[in-house]
């Protein structure tokens, strides 16, 4: 059990640690790196996975719905706490809703459950991203038009991949292989970028960051159990949802807060201390998943 957990988590934290170490000495332009990843490599991986006819996406509908409910429900669960503690909702609530399904979720699910988990990881990632760039942006900037969402390479790749899959359009094996190879670049790059971002942690607001590190995975896990029961999710899909529910806040929350000038330093504390908190949360969640869910997967 311990060996399985270490085999899953050590590559995640070693690659992130390499990013932190490199960033400390070199201070790379991480924004350009993230732009390249989010506009090229990640869309290629998303399209390749969705367009692959061997991935029965119709089987992942309830998983996608469950992921969306966790995102929305987490916001509803933490809202009373935010009001009670008199925190700024626009600063605190989005990081509790929109988790790190890209930088950490995709690599973690693949390392934990193998390549067979890639479709589930992508489906959950897309569900979270669609909500983040629609509802999430509206929460910070109510007057931003939603049509901008459809210009994003991520969304274009998602829609194109869904059309190819649903219409059963055959693609050449060499094309899918090339897309998978280029898209595969994004997984270690997401973790490396996360490590570089760790250098921006501001411990001046550590109490709020610590509160977020507890509430983000807790709210997701509270919602995951009834969803798995109600939708009767089994095996790999149930395991993937448990991991998705426990993920820390997405690094993207900081970038969006910076863009819309919504207390970006406070959001950085929530995001980065939350990701440090996953060092404690993820081993526990993975241990429970391997003990109680993985037997039905394998």
TrEMBL record:
What is the protein's membrane topology class?
Answer: Multi-pass membrane protein
> Is Transport given among the entry's keywords?
yes
Q: Which UniProt keywords apply?
A: Cell membrane, Membrane, Transmembrane, Transmembrane helix, Transport
Provide a GO biological process annotation: transmembrane transport
> What compartments host this protein?
Membrane
Q: Which InterPro entries match?
A: Mem_transp_PIN-like
Q: What's an example GO cellular component term for this entry?
A: membrane
- Highest taxon above the source species: Bacteria
Q: Which Pfam families match?
A: Mem_trans
User: Which residue windows are transmembrane per the record?
Assistant: 62-85, 105-131, 152-172, 178-196, 208-231, 237-256, 268-293
Main localization is: membrane
What is the designated name of this protein?
Answer: Transporter
Specify the species: Halomonas cupida
